[in-house]
Design a protein that fits this description.
The chain is built from 3 helices and 5 strands; from the N terminus they run H-E-H-H-E-E-E-E. With 170 residues, it is α+β, with helices and mostly antiparallel strands. Strands 1-4-5-2-3 form a 5-stranded mixed β-sheet. Helix 2 crosses helix 3.
Length: 170
Amino acid sequence: MKAQLSFDFYFSLIVFIVFVASLFFKLITFFPLYSEEVSLQKLRAESYQISEILVNDAGYPGNWHTDVPNAKRLGLSDEIKNKTNILSASKITAIDSLCNSAGGYNKVLDLLDIEDGFLTSFVDKSIEPNVVLMTCLPPEAFAKLRVEINRTVAFGSGAFGELRVSMWKK
């Protein structure tokens, strides 16, 4: 006796439904990890771009450190030497004093066009013990650090150090 619906049909249908459901649940659990990694890579790229701007751009105007309130863009490259990865000590001092002034952290965020959390520091590694030349961090407590970029830089005086740029999602 032949029928349209048999045991084999029901068994195959149940196996197919279980297979599709397990595939669906695997995709649901994989997607949050994937989207988190994508956002982390975007943040890492943005922090590298900010480190590039700080290290290899003189800012606008080139001598913005002499007139900080009229600065349009921050950059720490020495405009006189005009070489890659050579930083101006006076610009580092100016951004440190700007960041540590009242409302200065938000001004630094605006001048660098940053929407997420941001922390940066310069460490002079040419002398022992290492000296922190500048630290710019938010006035309030911040979330856990998500990405950090470390770059070796040189100062106009011939010393060398390290730039650390850390970013996180607000």
